[in-house]
Specification:
mainly alpha; flat
Length: 191
């Protein structure tokens, strides 16, 4: 959030963005724990999409929209969210009666090695073969980010408070169903 604020995102939006991100992360963890893989591919459900849809792009500065589009890379979809594999690793460690700290250390090392590897690999292939070449399936995510930003700026939208009410109603119904599922054995409806 501090880095995003330093880069130009309004501090309140930076905080809101990461609060929503962590709430979506908890939802991904819950879905993965209850249903297994691969059922947590939440396209267009990230904080950038929610903020611009509910709050309206016309109410945001261009630099806020630019920063939200630059954060799109890890919020486009959640199919590769690290929390799912981390939880499964911790569950396997618990069943094997091994150290959960070792799993956490391995996940942290893998995150660092993976970040370095992906930056090197992407730059290597982008320079060697071109960004929009066949190795990306002909689709460059950089183009997608720019098109998203352009659509936000060229076609500003008003706030959509009806969608906020719908999200609130969905949350409320889910909590009621979760409570009923916990309180009554054999409750037929899953939240």
């Amino acid at each position: 959030a501090a880095l995003c604020t330093y880069a130009g995102l309004a501090p309140a939006l930076a905080g809101l963005f990461f609060v929503i991100f962590y709430l979506v992360s908890l939802a991904v963890a819950r879905v993965r724990a209850e249903f297994g893989s691969p059922v947590h591919d939440f396209h267009f459900a990230g904080p950038g999409h929610m903020i611009t849809y509910v709050g309206g792009t016309m109410n945001l500065r261009n630099q806020d929209l630019t920063m939200l589009s630059l954060l799109w890379w890890f919020n486009r979809a959640y199919r590769s969210h690290p929390i799912a594999n981390s939880l499964e690793g911790l569950q396997m460690a618990a069943q094997a009666r091994s150290s959960a700290r070792a799993v956490v250390a391995a996940v942290l090392v893998a995150a660092v090695v993976g970040a370095v590897a992906v930056f090197w690999g992407y730059l290597h292939y982008a320079y060697a073969q071109g960004v929009a070449s066949k190795w990306t399936g002909g689709m460059s995510r950089g183009v997608e980010i720019c098109q998203l930003l352009q659509s936000w700026i060229d076609d500003p939208r008003e706030a959509n408070f009806g969608s906020l009410l719908a999200v609130g109603a969905g949350f409320g119904i889910t909590m009621v169903l979760a409570g009923a599922r916990t309180a009554y054995v054999g409750w037929p409806l899953h939240p």
